[in-house]
Amino acid sequence: MPGAEADAATSYAYKASLIGSAHRFELTEEGLSWHIAGRSGLWRYDEISAIRLSFRPVSMQQHRFRADVSRTGGGRIAILSTSWQTAALMAPQDSGFRDFILALHARMAQAGSRAELTAGLGRKTYVAALAFLAVLTVAMAGLLIRALLIGEFAGALFILGFAALFAWQVGGFVWRNKPRSYSFDQLPRSVLP
């Protein structure tokens, strides 16, 4: 049903917390309509000043994405790719989130928007994260060398295992959140589900 697919791409909802109402968004002819915690508004597409896409895993959902939408004159809303289901379950809404974000970008491009489109972490935050990782790498290498020199092979294996797990988890986060700008027709895949 073509009409149902178009409706799905122009609306999106998620629960940001277990308690409280869903955050609802809709793409209308006039602009982005939103309903969050008893408040609502309509932002014209040409009023949207910036969008930042990022990969933001949390303990309950390791595969979570976020879009921060800012408006000229103030105001920012966050759109997340997961929704709380129960006290112990966050459900991914990957295809609905991706379709909505793509449709939002298409509508903004149609409206002639000049919004700043960025992906990943802020540049200063990213540099600080890389510096922290460099210091941590040097410290872990020092511990590994020390363990090998004194013959603690079990400790060396533990350090290697921990380093591999850490590189897999944190490395993916750092790689996906590399700061960059993008255009309406070239959205970065690494920060979309």
Automatic annotation (TrEMBL):
This protein's name: Bll5862 protein
Assigned keywords, A-Z: Membrane, Transmembrane, Transmembrane helix
Residues that span the membrane, as ranges: 126-149, 155-175
